[in-house]
Amino acid sequence: MLKCRAVWKKLAPLARESSTLCRQSVRRAGLNNGRPVRVQVAGMSSGPLGEGGENKLYFLLVAAAGLGGVAYVSGFDGNIRICTDCVSLVFAYCLSLLLSCIVTFMQSLPADSTSASQKILSHAPYLLIGGGTASFAAARSIRARDPGARVLIVTDEPDLPYMRPPLSKELWFSDDPSVTETLRFKQWNGKERSIYFQPLSFYIHPEELNSAENGGVAVLTGKKVIHMDVRGNKVKLDDDTEISYDKCLIATGGVPRNIQAIERAGEEVTKRTTLFRKIEDFKSLEKVSRNIKSITIIGGGFLGSELACALGRRSTESGLEVIQMFPEKGNMGKVLPEYLSNWTTDKVKKEGVKIISEALVKSVSYRDDKLEIQLKDGRLVKTDHIVAAVGLEPNVDLAKSAGLEVDSDFGGFRVNAELQARSNIWVAGDAACFYDIRLGRRRVEHHDHAVVSGRLAGENMTGASKPYWHQSMFWSDLGPDVGYEAIGIVDSSLPTVGVFAKATAKDTPKAATEQSGTGIRSESETEDTAISPVASSAPAPTVAEQKDNYGKGVIFYLRDKVVVGIILWNVFNRMPVARKIIKDGEEHADLNEVAKLFNIHDD
C-alpha cells in the first residue's frame, strides 16, 4: 500500500483546497447541500430526475466525476488496487474541479440568456404604464368587460399594485413590530388586511401572458417606460426592451415635490430627508423614527398632518420630538376655513406635535450632527431628520416622446371627457388633467379619483365611450377619532358656511369603518347613488361659529352662490348626498335646510 500512501500524500491538500472551492461555487450557483435549486440555464427546466434540466446536469456532474476518479486511479499503477479512502478522495477531488469548471462556465454566460426582459412578451393588447391604484382599477375593469383580455402592467417600483393611503394612516398605528415586512395592518374597525390589492397568485407571469388560455393580468416590476412611439404603437423600457400595444393607459402618477433649500443644501442634508410616497419610503421613515431624537415635517396639508399625528403618538412612547412647520396659520390652512384649521391645529398639538406656523424655509444645513433649518423670519430649528410633504408633481416624462399635451395651468396630461389623449391612449389618476362637466378642467390627486378614473379608462379601452362625470371624493384621518371626507373644490379662499352638531360615539373614522366593513371608504361609497335624499326631521342647526364645538358637521364651499365643494366633518357614509348637491348646481337660499339632508342631528 506504499503507492496508496503516496496518492494520499499527494492529493490530500489539493482535495481540501478544491473542496473549499467547490462549496463556494455551489453556493454561487444556487445549490444547497448538494441539492439543485433551480439553477436557470438557457433551454433547461425544473422537474424530477430524468425530466428537469438542472437534475440532469447534476447527474452528469456526478457520473463524470466518478469516471474521472476511476480513470485517474487506474492510470496510477495500471489497476484499481487502492483502498476505498483513496478512491473517495480522488472522486471528491475530480468532482470539485468539474463542478467549479461548470459553475464558472454558467456564470460566464451572457446575462441576456437568463434575463427576465428576454422572456417577457413583445406585444400586449392592453398595456398599462404605472403600477398604482389607477392601473389596477383599469386592469380589473378591462377584465370585467373582456374576460379573455391580456393585460400587462409595467411599473418602475419593485412591488405589486398597492394602496397608498395606509402608508400615512393605519400602518403607523400597528402594534405588529414586523409591519414593515408584512405590510398588513388593522383598519380602524379592527379587521386586518394587506396593503396589496391582490396577492401574487392573482397575477400571471409576463412570459405566460400570450399563451394563457383565458388571458389575465401580468405585472412587470422594476422596469420603467422611458420612450413612447405613438405612431408605432410601442414603448421602450429602460433596459431597451420594446413592447408594442393595441391600447395603452398612462397612469404614471406623480413624484413628491422637494424644497429648493433642501435641493441645494448638499448630500448630508438630502440623505437625511424623506420625500414620502412609496412603500420603501414608509419602511425607511419607520426605521429612522426609531433611531433618532427629533424629526421635522415640512408641510401642513393632508400628508404632512397625517404623518405628524402618527409620529406624534409614537413620541409619547419613545420620547421622539416631532415638529411640524408650514407657511399657513394652521393645519390644512389651504383647505379648511380658518376657525376649523385652528381647531385642527390644536388637535395635532394634543397628539404630541410641536407646531411652527407661518414658517418659510430660507436654508437648510448640516452642522454638528444636526440639521439646521433657518426660517426667513430668523427662527432656527434643529432636528435629526426632515420629511418634506409639500405636494406632488404629476409625472409627465413621456409627454415629449409621445407628443402629448401637458396642461399649463394644472399640470398633467390633457385629456378629453373620456380620458383620451389619443385614439388608443388614455390617462387616469394623478397624471390626468380632465374636463369636469360641472366644475371645469381639473386635476385630482386622491385615491378615490384614481379608482374611478382608472375604472372608467378601463371601460373606455374596451369600447364603452363613457364621459367622466363622477365627482370623486377624498378623505383624511387624524387618527381613529377625527376624520373628514370631501368632494368638489374645497379651497379656503372661497366663502364657506359651516353647520355643526354635537358628536356621538358613532361619529369617528373607526365607527364608520365598522359600519361599512372597509378601511378604504371610497371603494364602497363610489358605487352608491343618491336619487332622493330624505331630510332629517330634527330642528335646524345653527350655522357655526360655535366656539370649539366642531364634533361633526358639514362645510359648504360657495362660488357665485352655488355649492362647488363640501366637507363632511366626522360625518360618514353620506357622500352620495353631497355628490348630488354639487351635480345639481343649484343656488340654495338656506344651507341650514340643505344640511338636514346629512342627518347630522340624528343620534
From TrEMBL:
<dbReference type="GO" id="GO:0043068">
    <property type="term" value="P:positive regulation of programmed cell death"/>
</dbReference>
<keyword id="KW-1133">Transmembrane helix</keyword>
<feature type="domain" description="FAD/NAD(P)-binding">
    <location>
        <begin position="127"/>
        <end position="453"/>
    </location>
</feature>
<feature type="transmembrane region" description="Helical">
    <location>
        <begin position="86"/>
        <end position="106"/>
    </location>
</feature>
<dbReference type="Pfam" id="PF14721">
    <property type="entry name" value="AIF_C"/>
</dbReference>
<keyword id="KW-0496">Mitochondrion</keyword>
<comment type="similarity">
    <text>Belongs to the FAD-dependent oxidoreductase family.</text>
</comment>
<keyword id="KW-0274">FAD</keyword>
<dbReference type="GO" id="GO:0006915">
    <property type="term" value="P:apoptotic process"/>
</dbReference>
<keyword id="KW-0963">Cytoplasm</keyword>
<dbReference type="GO" id="GO:0005743">
    <property type="term" value="C:mitochondrial inner membrane"/>
</dbReference>
<keyword id="KW-0999">Mitochondrion inner membrane</keyword>
<dbReference type="InterPro" id="IPR029324">
    <property type="entry name" value="AIF_C"/>
</dbReference>
<keyword id="KW-0472">Membrane</keyword>
<keyword id="KW-0238">DNA-binding</keyword>
<keyword id="KW-0520">NAD</keyword>
<keyword id="KW-0809">Transit peptide</keyword>
<comment type="function">
    <text>Functions both as NADH oxidoreductase and as regulator of apoptosis. In response to apoptotic stimuli, it is released from the mitochondrion intermembrane space into the cytosol and to the nucleus, where it functions as a proapoptotic factor in a caspase-independent pathway. Release into the cytoplasm is mediated upon binding to poly-ADP-ribose chains. The soluble form (AIFsol) found in the nucleus induces 'parthanatos' i.e. caspase-independent fragmentation of chromosomal DNA. Binds to DNA in a sequence-independent manner.</text>
</comment>
<keyword id="KW-1017">Isopeptide bond</keyword>
<dbReference type="GO" id="GO:0033108">
    <property type="term" value="P:mitochondrial respiratory chain complex assembly"/>
</dbReference>
<dbReference type="GO" id="GO:0005634">
    <property type="term" value="C:nucleus"/>
</dbReference>
<feature type="transmembrane region" description="Helical">
    <location>
        <begin position="57"/>
        <end position="74"/>
    </location>
</feature>
<keyword id="KW-0597">Phosphoprotein</keyword>
<keyword id="KW-0285">Flavoprotein</keyword>
<keyword id="KW-0053">Apoptosis</keyword>
<keyword id="KW-0812">Transmembrane</keyword>
<keyword id="KW-0539">Nucleus</keyword>
<feature type="domain" description="Mitochondrial apoptosis-inducing factor C-terminal">
    <location>
        <begin position="457"/>
        <end position="584"/>
    </location>
</feature>
<feature type="compositionally biased region" description="Low complexity">
    <location>
        <begin position="529"/>
        <end position="541"/>
    </location>
</feature>
<dbReference type="InterPro" id="IPR036188">
    <property type="entry name" value="FAD/NAD-bd_sf"/>
</dbReference>
<keyword id="KW-0007">Acetylation</keyword>
<protein>
    <recommendedName>
        <fullName>Apoptosis-inducing factor 1, mitochondrial</fullName>
    </recommendedName>
</protein>
<dbReference type="Pfam" id="PF07992">
    <property type="entry name" value="Pyr_redox_2"/>
</dbReference>
<feature type="region of interest" description="Disordered">
    <location>
        <begin position="506"/>
        <end position="541"/>
    </location>
</feature>
<dbReference type="GO" id="GO:0046983">
    <property type="term" value="F:protein dimerization activity"/>
</dbReference>
<keyword id="KW-0832">Ubl conjugation</keyword>
<comment type="subunit">
    <text>Monomer (oxidized form). Homodimer (reduced form). Upon reduction with NADH, undergoes dimerization and forms tight, long-lived FADH2-NAD charge transfer complexes (CTC) resistant to oxidation. Also dimerizes with isoform 3 preventing its release from mitochondria. Interacts with XIAP/BIRC4. Interacts (via N-terminus) with EIF3G (via C-terminus). Interacts with PRELID1. Interacts with CHCHD4; the interaction increases in presence of NADH.</text>
</comment>
<keyword id="KW-0560">Oxidoreductase</keyword>
<dbReference type="GO" id="GO:0016174">
    <property type="term" value="F:NAD(P)H oxidase H2O2-forming activity"/>
</dbReference>
<dbReference type="InterPro" id="IPR016156">
    <property type="entry name" value="FAD/NAD-linked_Rdtase_dimer_sf"/>
</dbReference>
<dbReference type="InterPro" id="IPR023753">
    <property type="entry name" value="FAD/NAD-binding_dom"/>
</dbReference>
<dbReference type="GO" id="GO:0048471">
    <property type="term" value="C:perinuclear region of cytoplasm"/>
</dbReference>
